[in-house]
């Protein structure tokens, strides 16, 4: 067993509305190469086979070998809320394409995810293997189950790229949506700061900032500082990487909301200096709803 990987991968069988731990483990050979195998003298049980990935950098050997191990079962579902390298959709070479191709060829029959940054990852998955079904949890539904519309004057997107998800959240909350104005150095393209959306400048108060991914958090701190003292902010990021901790966020936001799509989010919540500074909203029930639909259709 690979001790430092056990928290990154969970193996289940879904049946009758429940996720049951599967008799599967990750095994490392003496030279370090990995495989997946059943526990000694224990058979796999029937039902929808599920591999839940909690890391931003999965080892595809684990996924391929798990799909091979469960190949006799018609439904092999990869629950991967955070799509690895999804933000690399414009890079050359394109790691979003690479990871999506690996998923498509791995032997899975379906993928469950949330807030996939852009269409590139899933478009590549479908193009490479149209038989793999993609199930995207409604991010706006998760947000509206986590916050109260009456707490806010509106929803703010950090940039034009966030407008779609911010608008979806605002529509479900019945609130207006605004996009902050970025300031960049025209010679280098470096981000210098933000200023409040023109439509919201005369309406200071409490707002919800919405985006998909938080890495180090510096950009979100710049956003809060650029909006100014009249803006009292909460932050929603679906995927909390928090690679530099949460201090830079909790210094600038009343509270930070995220899902448990990554183990780093849960770790950051535990390490948060204030008990309520980082709020984790589990995806478990939303995943169960998707698996139930798959199970009903089989």
TrEMBL record:
Residues 154-221 form the Phosphoribosyltransferase domain. InterPro entries: PRTase-like, PRTase_dom. It comes from Mycobacteroides franklinii. Keywords: Kinase, Transferase. Gene3D superfamilies: 3.40.50.2020. It holds the Pfam family Pribosyltran. CDD domains: PRTases_typeI (cd06223). One of its GO terms (molecular function) is kinase activity. This is Ribose-phosphate pyrophosphokinase.
